[in-house]
Amino acid sequence: MSKSSLFDLTGRKVLLTGGGRGIGRTLAFALAEAGCDVALIARHLNEVEAVASDIRKLGHKALAFKADIAQKAEVQKVFDDTVKGLGRLDVCVNNAGVGIHESAEDISEEHWDYVIDINLKGTFLCCQAAARHMIPQKRGSIINISSISGSIANIVPKGQAHYNASKAGIILLTKSLAVEWASYGIRVNTVSPGYIRIGEAYPMANVWESLTPMKRSGEPEELSGVVIYLASDASSFTTGSEIIVDGGYTAT
Q1: Which one is catalytic: 141, 149, 163, 235?
Q2: Is 184 marked active-site?
Q3: 3-class SS of residue 13
Q4: Within 13 Å, how many C-alpha atoms sit on residue 172's CB side?
Q5: Is residue 81 one of the residues assigned to a domain?
Q6: Global model pTM greater than 0.90
């Protein structure tokens, strides 16, 4: 394979969760521009339908589905429908997630379950559904979006023990699945972003940026290259890895 074709994603079939807004929307366009046909999943159908419509204008096939990734039956259906619509599944990007800032002593059982169910359980169910389609074809790339909060006790501006625990779980889940599925040619990796500017600046942006060696927040587009790398043959010997994109924050 030539060096120029290592990052070529022409014709690859990708499923992306949380593709209607923020980081997910940016990744959806980046993957389409790299040559992929995409299926987008979100809780709000109108958002992913709008993104899918714009991707079709780029000349690529795009599907949009509404689903709750914490519900196994819904996950299985959208993965089956994706394979029916796109023909196969080459790459799965698990980006959907939620977070709540609140002190640990105030976390309700409802909030704990909500965050863990979507972030950790949902990621697992999507990995499982992806693998069931990838195992017979003996190849595939699963990319889980975690966070630096999975490696540090991130409590700025307020506690988020449930979020931190869910993101830490994704990192070890990734390693576990990478080892289990390596023999099937399935690679499983994690991308852990730092503080990424999405829409309006967060109230604590100045504090976060002051603690970041690069003295700024990241842009969603700065995650695209990492995801394209992990989706492509350039990362053919990369599995079970966590790639941190945080401007040096956790290095300090």
Answers
A1: 163
A2: no
A3: strand
A4: 7
A5: yes
A6: yes
As a whole number of Å, the CA-based R_g of the chain is: 17
Contact of 95 with 27, CB cutoff 8 Å: yes
Residue 148 counted as domain residue: yes
Query: Catalytic site residue 167?
Result: yes
* pLDDT one digit per residue (tens) for the chain, 252 residues: 555 688 999 999 999 999 999 999 999 999 999 999 999 999 999 999 999 999 999 999 999 999 999 999 999 999 999 999 999 999 999 999 999 999 999 999 999 999 999 999 999 999 999 999 999 999 999 999 999 999 998 766 678 999 999 999 999 999 999 999 999 999 999 999 999 988 665 666 788 888 899 999 999 999 999 999 999 999 999 999 999 999 999 998
Whether residue 163 lies in the annotated active site: yes
* Catalytic, out of 141, 147, 217, 232: 147
SS (H, E, C) 32-55: HHCCCEEEEEECCHHHHHHHHHHH
- Determine which one of 167, 229, 232, 249 is catalytic: 167
Whether residue 186 is contained in a domain is answered as: yes
Rounded Cα–Cα distance for residues 218 and 200 (Å): 13
Domain tally for the chain? 1
Q: Which two tokens stand for residue 193?
A: 């972003």
